[in-house]
């Protein structure tokens, strides 16, 4: 089940790439109040949040990276709301270094780095469990 973290990260990265390409091609498109690419973030972050909670409850992975993933999802959700409600609904496209974009990127960084960390930590935990069972047999 821990591999589902990679699915969430894939959704997030796809959304970021699509959003970057969308804004480079169309700038701020007045056809959509909120650019379509922004909805990928709205899918990816809650997916990672739910997966982290399920992994914590099932004790299927080390807990500490999952807490950072949850923090990343919350930071990115704040950035998403701030960007879309504070700017896009008013017809403003903020610069890439605007505070909501920084929050989006920090949240994404947390989710990517700590998803990979959780997968590696889980692999180490399983390897140690296998080696200790071989020693006791």
TrEMBL record:
Keyword field: Membrane, Transmembrane, Transmembrane helix
Protein origin, superkingdom: Bacteria
Membrane-spanning ranges: 39-56, 63-82, 102-124
Keyword Membrane set for record: yes
Name recorded for this polypeptide: DUF2243 domain-containing protein
Native source species: Paenibacillus chartarius
